[in-house]
Amino acid sequence: MPLDRRMNGSRLSMTRYSQGDRQEAGFVGIPQGLSALPASPAATVSAAGALALASAVCATLVPRSPLAELVVDGLMPWLDFAQPLRMLDVGTGCGCIAIALASHWTALEIDAVDVSETALVRARANARRHGVAERVTFHCSDVFSALDGRRYDLIVSNPPYVPHASMTELPEEYLHEPDTALRAGDDGLDIVRRLLARAYDHLRPGGHLLIEVGEAQPQTEQLLDGIESLWMEFQQGGEGVVLLDRDACRQYRERLQESMR
């Protein structure tokens, strides 16, 4: 289905969450520095806790993504998560996006990749804890490097997107999180460019690429100038999330190839 110019999210954004949100979602108590997930698979889909999944200090990022709205509401009319779709989560970290999607949408089969083996150890443990390990497969991969031509109906990524110059301006809490999960070159697009360059090869017909680029949205809009893309809106806040269909990814790849001649 061709992209409309805008899509409105509906109910939930976990860009910020409180201790009360954790308790409502069924969180167990966690000492500082340990990871936690909601105490049952059903808890991962509550309105207060879809992505409030804490992660290990210095191993993965603490999730703050507006993509939580999509975990609950899906991506209609473009993709029906109730169907047996194959998805890829690039830069999965502690696995929160992949695990929440698999918990809420039981027909999905998900591959989740990260360049950090330390993060993947935690992600696999989290998937086992929530009973989705048979439907979420984790791979150590630098973006698409280990995926051997696999193709998906949806590729989703919350990659590093902080420009070098902005690293010193981040709140102190970010100093406890991995630099490599935040920093993404002079303009914040080092990983975004790699996703766009290879996404077409890893999407099935009718597939889509969904990327959160945060503060790098202006640079991304410039990068995608002339290519049909949809910047999503979320009722509970959050921005910088763009959706492209497979044809748009093909256009980007062709433009990149032309520029290299």
How would you describe this structure to a colleague?
The protein has 261 residues and is α/β, with parallel strands linked by helices. It has one domain (6-259): 3-Layer(aba) Sandwich (Rossmann fold). The protein has seven helices and eight strands. Strands 1-7-8-6-5-2-3-4 form an eight-stranded mixed sheet. The radius of gyration is 17 Å and the shape is globular. The two termini are 32 Å apart.
Features of the shown structure:
single chain; 261 residues; alpha/beta; Rossmann fold; 7 helices; 8 strands; 25% helix
Helix content: 10-25%
**Overall residue-averaged pLDDT value:** 74
- Low-confidence segments: 5-62
What multimeric state do the chains show? single chain
* CATH H-level homologous superfamily name: Vaccinia Virus protein VP39
Q: Main β-sheet: number of strands, strand sense, barrel status? A: 8 strands, mixed
Distance between the termini: 32 Å
- Output the strand order for the largest sheet: 1-7-8-6-5-2-3-4
Number of strands: 8
CATH class descriptor name: Alpha Beta
Pairing-aware structural class of the strands and helices? alpha/beta
Order of H and E elements: EHHEHEHEEHEHEEH
Any guess at the CATH architecture?
3-Layer(aba) Sandwich
- Proportion of strand residues: 15-25%
Shape: globular
